[in-house]
C-alpha cells in the first residue's frame, strides 16, 4: 500500500509541475501578443531619441490640455491637465482609478515640468509603456502617443 501512495504522489506532483509550466507559457504568450498589436514594434518614441525631437516634443506637449482614455474600461473619459501631478493606479486616492488586473495600486504618474509632461512608472509589477517602449524612468510624453497600463491606454491631447 505505501508503494502505491508514493507512486500516486509522484504523478500528482508531476502533473502540478506541467500545469505550472503551461500557465507560465500562456502568460508569456499573452504578454508578448498584447504589446505587438497594430503593426511593427517601435523602440522608442520620436521625442526621446534626439535633442531636436526633444525640443519639438516639448513645444507640442505645452499644448496638452487633457489626458484622454482611448482603450479600456474608462474609454472616452477625459482628465483636464493643470499644474498638478496626475496619479494612475488602483488606489482610491488616484487621480485616474484603473480597475485592471494588470494595474498596481500606485502604478504611474504624469508630472508637469517646464511645460512638458513626463510619465514615470512607480515600481509597478507589470510596467508602464509609452507607445511600445517600457518606461524605466521619467520620460517625456508627446501629444497623441499612447501610454499603456495593462489593458488601458491614454493619450495627451490639446
UniProtKB/TrEMBL annotation:
| Record-linked Pfam families | FHA
Keyword 4Fe-4S attached = no
Highest taxon of the lineage: Bacteria
> What keywords tag this UniProt record?
Phosphoprotein
- Where are the residues of the annotated region Disordered? 32-56
What spans are recorded as compositionally biased (Low complexity)?
39-50
Q: Which InterPro entries match?
A: Cell_Proc_Reg/RNA_Proc, FHA_dom, SMAD_FHA_dom_sf
Q: Where is the FHA domain?
A: 86-135
Instruction: Answer whether the UniProt record assigns the keyword Membrane to this protein.
Output: no
- The name of this protein is FHA domain-containing protein
Q: Which organism is it from?
A: Phytomonospora endophytica
